[in-house]
Design goal:
about 210 residues, alpha/beta, Maf protein, seven-stranded mixed beta sheet, globular
Length: about 210
């Protein structure tokens, strides 16, 4: 049975088709009841196809979120579904989640001392209707950390270094990599939360 909520206006929880613990925590902290569903999408194959068509990294994030929404809708055709994706844009080049420690080290080595963008996109869907889709971006500047620090960081992160684009979690040890950040916290964690909340209010799903 769903707990009572002062703001939520839908009779059922929002179905979050994402395995991201950070996104789930953001939504739960905002008082939105959730059901979690994994959307089976081959992100790497779709991203490669979009890159071949010279699609910008921000648009790739939106396209991946739409693909996840379509997959989730097939699994839960009557649910109110939220999907999301995030891309890292380094000088217009898309970086994905590193496959292993060696790739994470190469990516972080390329990013150190430079700025990059994080594009967080989300799609809100019910049945065949796209209720809202949007994206937000944040600009981050990595400090020029030393090689010994990088190795110590990778040791401390362990396998989790491969769980996020860029090989860092800003809410955890990744904060040690940066010297400046422009953008809201939720966008950096992978969700354009303020725009999403506005869309939910617009559709009568949250108290206005």
């Amino acid at each position: 049975m769903m707990a009572s909520n002062a703001f939520w206006r839908h009779p059922h929880p929002l179905t979050l088709a994402s395995g991201s613990a950070a996104r789930r925590a953001l939504l739960e902290a905002a008082g939105i009841p959730l059901a979690v569903l994994k959307a089976p999408v081959d992100e790497g194959a779709l991203a490669a196809k979009l890159l071949a068509a010279l699609t910008p990294p921000r648009d790739i994030a939106l396209a991946l979120a739409h693909a996840k929404a379509e997959a989730a809708q097939k699994a839960e055709p009557d649910a109110l579904i939220l999907t999301a994706d995030q891309t890292l844009d380094h000088r217009g080049v898309l970086l994905m989640k590193p496959a292993d420690r060696a790739q994470a080290r190469r990516q972080l080595g390329a990013l150190r001392g430079e700025e990059h963008l994080l594009h967080s996109a989300a799609v809100l869907r019910r049945g065949d209707a796209i209720l809202w889709a949007g994206a937000a971006s944040a600009r981050l500047a990595m400090r020029a950390f030393s090689d010994p620090f990088l190795d110590a960081y990778l040791d401390a992160m362990g396998p989790t270094v491969c769980e996020t684009v860029g090989g860092y979690q800003l809410e955890a040890l990744g904060v040690h990599l940066f010297e400046s950040i422009e953008g809201d916290h939720a966008t950096i964690l992978g969700l354009p939360l303020l725009a999403l909340l506005q869309a939910l209010r617009h559709h009568g799903l949250l108290a206005a």
